[in-house]
Design a protein that fits this description.
7 helices, 3-stranded antiparallel beta sheet, 193 residues, mainly alpha
Length: 193
């Protein structure tokens, strides 16, 4: 099954020159039929794509990958799915949007290498039903979490020059061979790739 989008895609470009707000719900169904929805009113900026890759692939909200970027940004912010599934849906949604395989793989490498990561526990807790009652057997609600410490991605703490070098290396590798997504993940996770 191929992925598909559903519904109209309406946005407002915000005055800050960087963000956009959805004026309609955006739904994507991945190749396994899993629904990924971004609600009307969501504000995104495409920044989950590491900045150093922009010169290699374009700005985060331009081109055929824009809708995929919106899906990816929303789920990076909400963290209701694992970071691995969130990065993978970005690849799938790009391909559905007509982004070529090599370019989609370069973007996939970029978000796997330098995009946000979080513990699976964060996704599990984010999916608790609204209004859940945490009291049971005399135990009261846990203290609210004021800060979620993200996991570092392999590209965390690297410079813009490092990002550009990584983009150049991956682009050359993708040109030379047809890497699988699993091979791309391994290269992105490898120290000193």
């Amino acid at each position: 099954m191929a992925g598909r989008y559903e519904g109209d895609f309406l946005v407002t470009l915000l005055d800050d020159g960087r963000n956009l707000r959805l004026e309609s719900d955006l739904f994507y169904f991945d190749p396994q039929g899993v629904r990924w929805g971004v609600p009307k009113g969501a504000v995104v900026d495409g920044a989950s794509i590491p900045r150093g890759f922009w010169s290699a692939v374009g700005g985060p909200l331009e081109g055929k990958y824009r809708n995929a970027s919106i899906i990816h940004d929303w789920f990076c912010d909400m963290r209701t799915r694992t970071w691995q599934a969130t990065h993978r849906v970005f690849y799938d949604a790009m391909r559905t949007s007509g982004v070529g395989e090599a370019r989609a793989k370069l973007f996939y490498y970029a978000v796997w290498w330098g995009g946000p990561r979080w513990e699976e526990r964060v996704s599990l807790n984010a999916n608790l039903p609204a209004g859940s009652d945490f009291s049971f057997k005399g135990v009261t609600s846990p203290a609210p979490v004021t800060e979620i410490i993200p996991l570092d991605s392999p590209g965390a703490g690297t410079t813009l020059i490092d990002h550009k070098a990584a983009a150049k290396r991956m682009r050359a590798m993708l040109k030379a061979q047809n890497l699988s997504l699993e091979e791309i993940e391994g290269l992105a996770d490898a120290p000193q790739f």
